[in-house]
Amino acid sequence: MKEPVRVTEVGLRDGLQNQPHPVSTAGKLELAGALIRAGVSHLEAVSFVHPKAVPQMADAAEVTAGLPFFGGGARGIDYMALVPNLKGYERAKAAGYQKVAVVLATTDTFNLRNLRMTRDQAEATCREVMAQARADGIYVRAYLSGACACPYDGLTDVSVVHELSERLLTAGANEVAISDTIGAGNPKQIRDILGPLVRAHGATPFNLHLHDTRGMALAMTWAGLEAGVRHFDASIGGLGGCPFAPGASGNVATEDLVYLLHGAGFDTGIDLDHLYDAVAVAESITQQSLGGNYTKWRRSQERRHWEQANTCAPEDGRAG
Ligand code: COA
Ligand code: ZN
Fold it and tell me: What are the Cα distances from residue 235, in Å, to 130, 133, 143, 241, 317?
């Protein structure tokens, strides 16, 4: 039997939060449907943040109300919502989420720009949400943003990532998502970050959240796999960017990640052909062209086949 890898699709939150054109609630639900048809079973659907901070997420409750199989049902889709504070947590709980994600960045500057809190304040907020979630029996992921580099302060020291991850786990996080928010990292950093953490805690409580800004995400994924990690985030077509991290582009494209994982013999439960179709849905609702390298390759194949089918064979022996 193939070893399973959990792929969490974050396009609906991380991918859409920075889009210049407003995406309708119906459009978001169309994308969710296309992803679920492809076999995606873990999705970060929305964030309950201040609507002025991220206008694309203002309809988080409406989106949630329309999500397929939300709250159970035959397919058992695992939905998650990002919450920046207790108010966001209460909104997520009221909407019915059983899994939330809190956010801590590695530097004061990044926390201040993102959440209007210093790092200590953001950590205290995470603790507050985690304590409440534990009392409510709700699962908590803790994002550790800027794990490889901060968009404002540069390279992140690996010891900072170790220390904050330890503190988040001790405070009750069910998992820590090591996040290269601006896609500035490399495989060695991933190895250095994960080595001691996996030795101390096993790989289960870790998830890699990689952006592909400099084309390193798949190489870093491989370093994560070698360290034992089996939980990864991705965004359909590479959709995304962070409004508070200048220069960040999208997450690693889900289709590229799935292609790598299937090639390496892992089971994701996702069908690559249907995932490829979902890229077109993401393009249509965001009015832009998207696609990881896998999509570019599939499209070039389709063009070639179309050209071959539509080229007339030259007529033998006749001039003109
Ligand atoms: N959802 C909706 N409204 C919220 C909220 C939330 N999660 N948290 C606070 N508010 C409201 C408060 O009720 C208050 O409203 P009022 O003025 O009507 O009383 C107002 O916002 C100010 O509250 P305050 O606690 O001072 O928040 P702030 O203005 O310092 O903003 C955040 C802090 C965290 C809410 C805001 O910076 C934010 O939403 N950031 C999200 C950034 C993000 O999504 N980044 C990408 C993902 S990591
Ligand atoms: Zn991200």
Answer: 26, 26, 16, 10, 54
pTM (global) more than 0.85: yes
Helix H or strand E encompassing 222: helix 217-227
- The closest ligand to the CA of 113 turns out to be 1
Q: Is 6 in the pocket of ligand 1 (CB under 6 A)?
A: no
50 lines ligand 1 (CB under 6 A): yes
Per-residue pLDDT tens digits for 70-97: 987 667 899 999 999 999 999 999 999 9
User: Is 242 among the residues known to form the active site?
Assistant: yes
Residue whose CB lies within 8 A of the most ligand 1 atoms, among 48, 49, 125, for a mutation test: 49
Domain coordinates in residue numbering, the chain: 3-309
Arithmetic mean of pLDDT, 280-285: 97
CA dihedral 208, 213, 214, 219 (to 10 degrees): 20
Give the side-chain half-sphere CA count within 13 A for 221.
Answer: 27
pLDDT 10s digits, 30-43: 999 999 999 999 99
CATH 3.20.20.70 fits 3-309, yes or no: yes
Q: Judge if the beta carbon of residue 86 lies within 6 A of ligand 1.
A: no
Query: How far apart are the CA of 50 and the centre of ligand 1, in A?
Result: 4
Q: Nearest residue CA, atom 15 of ligand 1?
A: 50
- Give the gyration radius of the chain's Cα atoms: 20
Contact by Cβ (8 Å): 38, 275:
yes
Q: What three-state secondary structure class fits 97?
A: coil
Cα–Cα dist 305/285, whole Å: 27
Of the listed ligands, the closest to the CA of 58 is 1
Tokens representing 185? 């990292």
pLDDT digits (tens, 9 = 90+) for 220-262: 999 999 999 999 999 999 998 666 766 668 999 999 999 999 9
Q: Measured in whole angstroms, how far is the alpha carbon of residue 96 from the centre of its chain?
A: 21
